[in-house]
């Protein structure tokens, strides 16, 4: 039985740092700040368990699309050696299990408050302390806690985007959002299922649901490129080789543009004959997954002509995989390959050969309304018992602006970002001292986000350590620092044609969201170098302040540094 909401929040003892979210980022931030820096840290997590993305996205078919031996933490050699992945690309339950294992192995659980959402964060300039308001959904209580550092590990893809269709509430069947999937198994047997969305998530869930449902209707607005993942059980010999060379593989991942242990191609797609080019694409295609990027050509994203060759190759593959030529043409993307995040699949296009699957092209026949019995498009009504939304996320900024963050002088984060996010390196924003973001907007995030997360957390931890050593109590970017970084983000984007395509990378999937590049796409190496340079120059572009600190803050500077001893 839930209690009434308390009138005024209860206060918790002050902390050095509050971290929001217990996914890949939050868990590593807790470990790094608590166990390596000796800070007093607490993580608040809205879910009932650890995992973040891998806690919420438990839809059928959910799995990582970067090989698991790379898509995992690299900070502990023992962890690398003891954990065994059962498949090349692990399914959601196994990744969730891994993150639970990490949580217990490093004794992190005791500092995580589950079922607790951060609902506000307000900076007090006089005491230089953040007051963080939380709501515990288990007890229905509001709490507030003070901390010097407020660190968002809330995830770049965690605030769902369910389009506000007319009649949405009238639907009599069940509705599901892939990013908040029920914990119990959903039984689609005998049911007429509709799914809206054909991005990476839709592409994973569609083949699995099609096998179970009586009928599946796929509502596609934009066709998406997808490459067979060629997922398979882990080969014991490959595993042995990986484990024997893990430190070197990890080093390569950290220094490669995609965060994978592979060198990138050096030749142009236009340097070779058409036959040779096709042979190279075909070989990479057969290998599966992102080999198509790693083992092909260097200029697929910088030369339109080079890009056309891979886009044509992939269109041809769709024609081979889909028997009905009319359906195949509807499934072929019109945008250049790679300007939206490509998906990996298991039998996605083949699913449209099944007699129980219908493709509805929403560009030709848009949705007019959701009705009690299904979806009405301009062409007529589709009767449904269940409806799945695989409609993506308000990426990068969504979770941050919803947290009701107020910085110096009461300025609201959503106001500071009204025309698009303004940050330095994606880590911090002017007027929000001691607020750090992991995988924040304008940060460098690429294919293997696990590597990016560790780099972001390490940079933040090093920055806090620097502050302690030099007795600074607050840090924030200058507006010039933000402007300089915005220009770097823009220059990197303009070197490609990525910004021209509508995608969540540029905020185009959310009506009304400013259209700006939300990632730094200059590559992991350039991003790492930029981060290292800022730090090496004494945090150039940031203002660091010495002075008296409030209660929570004081405890930080008085603590003996674990790392420096
Ligand atoms: P995505 O890639 O944003 O895909 C969302 C899909 O939902 C995409 O096909 C969208 O079509 C579709 N969508 C969104 N809004 C609508 C409306 N209003 N009507 C019809 N269709 C709509 O999200 P995912 O969850 O698949 O993947 C996110 C990332 O997770 C992925 O890139 C990987 O990094 C992992 P659109 O293309 O916008 O026309």
Would you spell out the secondary-structure blueprint of this structure?
Blueprint: E1 10-11, E2 15-20, H1 24-36, E3 41-44, H2 53-56, H3 77-82, H4 92-105, E4 112-113, E5 116-124, E6 129-136, E7 141-152, E8 174-177, E9 192-196, H5 200-212, E10 215-220, E11 226-228, H6 236-244, H7 246-254, H8 274-287, H9 291-294, H10 304-321, H11 325-331, E12 343-345, E13 357-361, E14 367-371, E15 374-377, E16 380-383, E17 386-389, H12 398-401, E18 405-406, H13 413-416, E19 435-437, H14 449-469, E20 472-477, H15 479-494, H16 524-536, E21 542-546, H17 551-558
Parallel strand pairs: 1-7, 2-3, 2-7, 3-4, 5-18, 7-19, 8-17, 9-10, 9-17, 10-13, 11-12
Antiparallel strand pairs: 5-6, 6-7, 14-15, 15-16, 20-21
Helix pairs in contact: 1-14, 10-11, 14-16
Residues 157, 163, 196-202, 221-222, 341, 362, 390-392, 504, 509 line the site of ligand NA7.
